[in-house]
Each structure stands twice: as structure tokens, then as C-alpha cells.
Amino acid sequence: MRSGQKVRTLGVVGTGAIGVSWVVLGLEHGLDVVAWDPAEGAEERLRAQIPNSPLVEPRGTLRFAESLAEVGREADLVLESGPERLEVKREIFAALDAAAAPDVLLTSSSSGLMPSTFQDACTHHPERVLVAHPFNPPHLVPLVEVVGGSATSSDAVDAALETLRHLGKRPIHIRREVPGHVANRLQAALWREAYHLVDQGIVSVADIDTAISDGPGLRWSLLGPFATQHLSGGPGGLGHVLEHLGPPMVDWWDDLGHPALTPALVEKLVDGVDEELDGTSAEELVERRDQALRRLLEIKADIGLG
After folding, report:
1. DSSP count for the chain of H helices, then E strands
2. Which residues, by range, are in coiled-coil regions (predicted)?
3. Domain-embedded: residue 100
4. Strands 170-174 and 32-36
5. CATH code, domain with 57
6. Fewer CB near the terminus (10 Å): N or C of the chain?
């Protein structure tokens, strides 16, 4: 896809949680969506979920394709959200590459696979293959990580960034491939220490969640970790913080844990979440979370932080 080229038909491959959310995003923006998923009953499940999604107003049309090739032929942009298995990605992208016009971007929602590991399966136009990794649910959470592979052209990256912005996203360009991209690596660092603290009996699962959701998580959702740290330094800003609190922080780094994800720890974490939620269903929690996300995004936009 050339930079500035308009998307009229969005192709969505895989209609699990991420795929459904991509479909909702396309419909909200008035795009025609052609979706495909090989699982039995996938179309029925997709159509059943769309009316329950918090659509502002569905202005586009949805059609379920009969094959991957059909998605490739008809879409102006393809968003793939299939299983996180390399051999499956390679098969999907090889089929899409064989069917799609040369200027159609082929993107993967992969949360950790690097595009170079499946891009070479595309023998026609590997330069238009890249990762566009969203965060669940993609129709609400603005972040998308754009990662090019060794064969991805700069034009494809630019076109992906521009198109995602047009769809209301806040894309960032990951300039070098690393497993897990960036945001998931940051999450993994926090989870590692959280698991360690629970494993050592220092704090409960529920208190870990409170420590983040009612503490730094509130500030991070508005400004992010660097800008938040800068503000904590007063007039001296980040320089003051690093000068005075940097050395103790390095000592904390040296004391961080390296937990093993043993069956016993897994059981402790799962039981801890069950106790924390106390019977609240996942469906109810998702509905409340999504309502709060919409209101938070509206507030950020109103005060100029969106």
C-alpha cells in the first residue's frame, strides 16, 4: 500500500478476540470488512458478537470469505490474527502474498513473533509484510506496534503508520526486531517481579493488582513512565530524579527476582486471581473495563493527553 492510499475494504484473518475487535474497528470507520477463519462455526460466532460490541454506529458492511485467497484478492489492507504458531503464520502469509495485489499491506497481530521469521514465506512481495501488534481490545486501546522485517520496505512502514493513524490508532515504530516487541517486554519485566513477590510470600495477588491499578498505573495511563518520572523530579525534572534516586534504583535492580514458573507458582497465581475476583465473571469484568476505557480515552482527549 502506498502512503496516502485509502483503505476501503479491510481484510481480517482469524476471528478470535483480536480479530473480532479489528472487525468492529473497521465497521466503526465505515469500511467494508471481509473476514475469514477456518474454524467450524466461526462466521456464526463472529456475527453473534458484533451486535454486543460497543459500536458507535456500524457504517460498514461485513462479509465472511470462503478462503484466504479471497481475503487477499479483495482487501486493501489485511490484519491477520491467527494462532501464535510460526508454521501457521508462514502458511497464512504465503497464501495471502500469492493472492493480494502488490500494494496491499499484509500485517500480523503477532504479540511476539518477529516478521522476518515468516516474511520469507512470501515469494512475491515480502516487502509489504510487517507486524502491526495491537493491544486488546484493539477497537478501544489506541496503541499498535509497527515492526518491519529484514525485507520490509520503508514505504510499507510509512503506509502502515499513516493508515493506522487514520483508523484512530496511536502507532509506534519499533526500529529493530526483538522477541515480544516493546510493550510486551515491559509488561513481562513487571510480571516477572510480581510473580517473584507472590512466590516469596511478600504480597498477595490482589495487593499486587491494587499496587499498580491504584498507584503508578493511574499515572502511566496518562503520561507513561518517563514523563511521570520527570514530573516527580520537581523543577529539576528527570535529571534530578536520576541523580538522586538513580543509585538506589540500581540496587533494587540487583535485588529483583528470577522466578521459575513452577506448577506450584502457577496454582498460587490462579488461586489468587480467583480469590480477588470473588465470583465476578470475566464477561462482566470485560464490560466494565471497556466502559471505563472509553470514558478514560474521552477524558484524555478532552484535556489534550489523547
Report:
1. 12, 8
2. none
3. yes
4. unpaired
5. 3.40.50.720
6. C
DSSP labels, 3-21: TTPPP-EEEEE--SHHHHH
Shared-domain flag, residues 195 and 167: no
- Structural domain for 224, as ranges: 183-302
Contact 13, 89 (CB under 8 A): no
306 is written with which cell numbers? 489523547
Q: Which residues of 137-167 are buried (b: 16+ CB within 10 A; e: fewer)?
A: bbbbbbebbbbbbebbeeebbbbbbbbbeeb
Helix (H) / strand (E) element for 130: namely strand 129-134
Residue 4: inside a domain, yes or no?
no
SS3 220: helix
Say if residue 196 is in the same domain as residue 260. Answer: yes
Q: Are residues 84 and 207 in the same domain?
A: no
Confidence band, pLDDT 50/70/90 cuts, at residue 50: confident
pLDDT over 80 at 59, yes or no: no
